[in-house]
Amino acid sequence: MEKAKKKIETDDRFEIRLSGSGGQGMVFAGMILAEAIGINDGKNVVQTQSYGPEARGGTSRSDVVVSSKDIYYPKPIKLDLLLCLTQESCDTYHQALKEDGLLIVDSDLVSQLPACEVHAFSFTQLARGRIGTPMVANVIALGTIAGLTKIVSKRGLSEAVQRRAPKGTEEKNLKALEMGFELARKKRGKKSH
């Protein structure tokens, strides 16, 4: 986690992949993250997406490339951060992660972990139990990413969520975002003790 923070502070290019299945909101999360980084935080950013032909259940991913300089190649080369909300996405993409990269998984849905440092959180269970819908697990994950790294500001992410959340869901999404920040605070607290 500390390696990822230091890398963000010193490197010109940071590559993120948000992955899961159709219906988990990976494209939505990628758009929020890119908007927060580019518009609110003033960095250069490119967001691309890929998903299977199925509307729900097929694989889905959103890639976000961030740099303080111009971005000439819009796709990730080797990931600095990988979020996996399904076992299939973890199995498929973990090899694209840099050796010192940050792997974050949903512990409710990813049980077979690769042999690397993994940060596991119960995104789906928390979303269902505390907010009443698993549909905001992606936003909890965004808050956790923001809290564990310095890639995006809390303010920038909150503003992007307010703008992008479907009408009538803003409050739930902001609550989910705050839950993600809290998960990161707890994780950082455990590391320092």
From TrEMBL:
* Keywords for the protein's UniProt record, in alphabetical order: Oxidoreductase
The enzyme's main class, written as a single word, is oxidoreductase
> What's the source species for this entry?
candidate division WOR-1 bacterium DG_54_3
Q: Which GO terms describe its molecular function?
A: 2-oxoglutarate synthase activity
On the tree of life, the source organism's domain of life is Bacteria
The Pyruvate/ketoisovalerate oxidoreductase catalytic domain covers: 22-182
Q: Which InterPro entries match?
A: 2-oxoglutarate_synth_KorC, Pyrv/ketoisovalerate_OxRed_cat, Pyrv_flavodox_OxRed_cen
The protein's name is 2-oxoglutarate ferredoxin oxidoreductase subunit gamma
